[in-house]
TrEMBL record:
Protein task: Catalyzes the ferrous insertion into protoporphyrin IX.
GO CC field: cytoplasm
Keyword Phosphoprotein: no
Listed EC numbers: 4.98.1.1
Amino acids binding Fe(2+): H189, E292
Record keywords, A-Z: Cytoplasm, Heme biosynthesis, Iron, Lyase, Metal-binding, Porphyrin biosynthesis
UniProt xrefs under InterPro entries: Ferrochelatase (IPR001015), Ferrochelatase_C (IPR033644), Ferrochelatase_N (IPR033659)
Domain of life, source organism: Bacteria
Family listed: Belongs to the ferrochelatase family.
Group of enzyme by EC: lyase
Name under which the protein is recorded: Ferrochelatase
PANTHER family per the UniProt record, alphabetical: FERROCHELATASE, FERROCHELATASE, MITOCHONDRIAL
Pathway: Porphyrin-containing compound metabolism; protoheme biosynthesis; protoheme from protoporphyrin-IX: step 1/1
Length: 345
């Protein structure tokens, strides 16, 4: 069998215009693992309410962060893919869960190079039904329907792998150099609390308050909240940061149901009011910078923190196309390619 790799990230609209953002958001928000309500209600909510105003608002936000070459998330993912390729002698393709750079195109590219055994790599460190799981489900559907000859293995979530924590800590350590901070905030993309309950295979382990996280459970394999706190703690220890100078929060919530707390915007206020006025923010739910980091955290977050009394603020970039990150991904791929059988999800 000929082996190859399909890296998959979230995706972006083709242009930062309401016309291009609308179909992208439609595909994204109509995903039953993102807005997980019955399809009739989802239709009403997404098409009847959210898409009436959101495309214009989102397009404005995209315009603030858009690069000459295109969407930062897409360009960074492409640069990363090129760097990973350089370490390997097998085909590596890039696809997106939503938008025009589809997973299907990625499989097709691999097929044309004779690949019939694929390592699927969701580019998310943590498991969530709205990120990692939807990539795997979609890829398996596409493979079953159109590439049935392909064997597909999947890279598990890597939020606590020692080698990943080392690279992440190194990158954060570099970002902190020369910046006088009195607090480091780990801000992860939020999800509705309901998603945590739905993803708990025991149906009773996850309490969504941390009281469950030190009790061994199969639920931790699919608990986004557990995994985010684990990443924070591992990086904190690797960088030798005092516990009182570090906290975790969740950003980017939509109105409606309760989302994971504490909310990042409330944390900005709390920290500034407590006199922690020099803040470093990192966003480890994303491997590449995107709208949610460049606009919501680096721009809006800075304003919110300063309005609340903050004095200095720094968003530390995601791993993006760092050499050590590309080399690590290539190592994981080499490890997969040399095994007869591969532990997968
Ligand atoms: C119900 C809504 C959403 C859930 C659940 C959700 C989970 C989730 N998302 C990411 C990663 C990204 N999300 C991005 C943008 C984005 N996310 C939502 C909504 C949910 N996300 C919306 C509506 C948007 C679009 C932008 C906007 O209108 O505000 C992005 C950035 C994409 C880009 O083009 O730059 C990323 C990346 C994760 C990891 C996740 C669950 C853990
Ligand atoms: Fe999102
Ligand atoms: Fe837990």
């Amino acid at each position: 069998m000929k082996k190859g790799v399909l890296l998959v990230n979230l995706g972006s609209p083709d242009n930062p215009t309401p016309k291009a953002v609308r179909p992208y958001l439609d595909e994204f928000l109509m995903d039953e693992r993102v807005i997980d309500v019955p399809v009739v209600l989802r239709n009403l909510l997404v098409r009847g309410i959210i898409l009436q105003t959101r495309p214009r608002k989102s397009a404005k936000a995209y315009q603030k962060i858009w690069w000459d070459e295109g969407s930062p998330l897409i360009i960074i993912s492409e640069r990363f893919t090129e760097k990973v390729k350089k370490h390997l002698d097998m085909p590596v393709a890039l696809g997106m869960r939503y938008g025009s750079m589809s997973i299907e195109k990625g499989f097709q590219e691999l097929k044309e190079q004779g690949v019939d055994h694929v390592l699927l790599v969701p580019l998310y460190p943590h498991y969530a039904m709205s990120s990692y799981e939807t990539v795997v489900v979609k890829a398996m559907e596409v493979a079953q329907k159109k590439f049935s000859e392909m064997k597909v293995d999947t890279l598990p979530a890597f939020y606590n792998r020692a080698d990943y924590i080392e690279v992440l800590s190194h990158s954060i350590g570099e970002g902190l150099e020369g910046f006088e901070y009195d607090h480091v905030l780990f801000s992860y993309h939020g999800i509705p609390e309901r998603h945590i309950r739905k993803s708990d295979p025991t149906r009773s382990h996850c309490k969504i308050d941390g009281s469950c996280c030190s009790i061994n459970s199969v639920a931790h394999h699919t608990c986004y909240r557990h995994q985010c706190y684990a990443t924070t703690e591992l990086v904190r220890k690797a960088l030798n940061l005092p516990a009182e100078k570090v906290s975790t929060s969740f950003q980017s919530r939509l109105a409606g149901d309760p989302w994971l707390k504490p909310y990042t915007d409330y944390e900005f206020e709390r920290l500034a009011k407590e006199g922690r006025t020099r803040l470093a923010v990192i966003t480890p739910a994303f491997v590449s910078d995107c709208l949610e980091t460049l606009e919501e955290i680096a721009m809006e977050g800075k304003e919110e923190f300063e309005e609340a009394g903050g004095k200095s603020y720094k968003h530390i970039p995601c791993l993006n196309d760092r050499d050590d990150w590309a080399a690590l991904m290539a190592d994981w791929i080499k490890d997969w390619s040399t095994r007869e059988a591969y532990l997968t999800v």
